Amino acid sequence: MKGKLLIFSAPSGSGKTTLLNHVMANIPEMAFSVSATTRPPRGEEVNGREYYFLSMDEFKKRVENGEFLEWEEVYPGRCYGTLLSVVEKMQDEGKHVAFDVDVCGGVNVKKHYGDQALSVFIQAPSVEVLRERLINRHTDSMEEIEKRLAKAAWEMEFAQGKFDRTVINDDLETAKREILEVVTDFINGQVAEPDENVL
Ligand code: ADP
Ligand code: 5GP
Prior knowledge:
single chain, alpha/beta, Rossmann fold, 5-stranded parallel β-sheet, 4-stranded mixed β-sheet, 7 helices, globular, binds adenosine-5'-diphosphate, binds guanosine-5'-monophosphate
């Protein structure tokens, strides 16, 4: 039987990476879909682990070759995309696949896989909290942070009603518990209750 697909989307700074790492650490048969991006590596990021870091020319060539399941210019001049070969390889290995994609990518991947996939939107309490978290993360310039914040309100609005589940990341320990429960239930084939947070 093929593995399941877990899609995680959220505005930058919501805690998606933190929560996804928690899920991966607790579910060993889950593998991370390493995306391609044209943004440069930040902090300790390693090519092939967090992302495949490509030049814009390389990225465009792969788009033309039809190598992406989906791709988006998430921020001006910054493209991100899911490589079909990466997902297929992990599925062939019998893994569940976790996607970290923007809200448009999340909706597109869900459309592609239907009931085989669960889409989870991770929501921070407010844009102000996002700003604080991004500043405290010390990985992006103020210019880069402002670009991300400028998009965040739109992303939260766009996501309304489009995801299977919403997890609010206010208190981190609560959010970790909740996300692990949502993912475990889905993997074990339990039908999720309708999302109380979807308006
Ligand atoms: P994303 O992947 O969505 O951009 P991160 O997981 O990198 O977000 O989290 C952004 C920053 O906020 C990180 O420094 C992280 O340690 C911190 N963070 C995550 N969740 C919480 C939380 N519930 N409370 C306070 N800080 C948090
Ligand atoms: P970051 O630069 O903070 O790693 O990611 C910025 C945004 O790009 C995040 O919302 C992240 O989920 C999104 N992203 C990462 N990989 C992909 C991808 O393959 N496709 C899409 N559509 N978005 C992605």
